[in-house]
Design a protein that fits this description.
138 residues; mainly alpha; 4 helices; 72% helix; elongated; membrane; Divergent PAP2 family protein
Length: 138
């Protein structure tokens, strides 16, 4: 097994977290520790699956069956991030309104917008390309 296929999504995940934190902090003009987690720009989920698909395309070619599987997985993850998880956030908002201020507040920001998913796609592609360029001899 070539460990680059495991290392690339892990490094992407580790890189996108701080990027998202810094962008959220700049947007809100404060340290955004309370915004760490699901949602935000760029989409961590989209970046991870895109980095994997991009690495497979660069190393094996787009005709390789693994690329088709990776792209399929990427679409499933991105559709889920955009639609299902946004509905979960709306449900959390409704539950928070019903329960009042005494109960533990559920996180309402869950899903991603298309812009956040697009940012994740571009970030994942860039990180995969950088890793492939650096370690292509291995």
């Amino acid at each position: 097994m070539e460990f680059i296929y495991l290392i690339t999504p892990v490094l992407t995940w580790l890189a996108v977290g701080p990027i998202k934190f810094l962008i959220n902090s700049a947007r809100h003009r404060r340290w955004a520790f309370d915004l760490i987690g699901n949602g935000g720009f760029p989409s961590n989920h989209s970046a991870v699956v895109t980095s994997t698909a991009t690495l497979i395309a660069l190393r094996e070619g787009m005709a390789h069956p693994a690329f088709g599987v990776a792209v399929t997985l990427a679409f499933v993850v991105m559709i889920d991030a955009n639609s299902l998880r946004q509905h979960v956030g709306r449900h959390a908002a409704a539950i928070n309104a019903l329960r009042g201020s005494e109960a533990k507040v559920l996180r309402e920001r869950m899903g991603h917008t298309l812009v956040e998913i697009g940012g994740g796609i571009l970030t994942g592609m860039a990180i995969a390309y950088a890793i492939h360029s650096r370690f292509s001899a291995f």
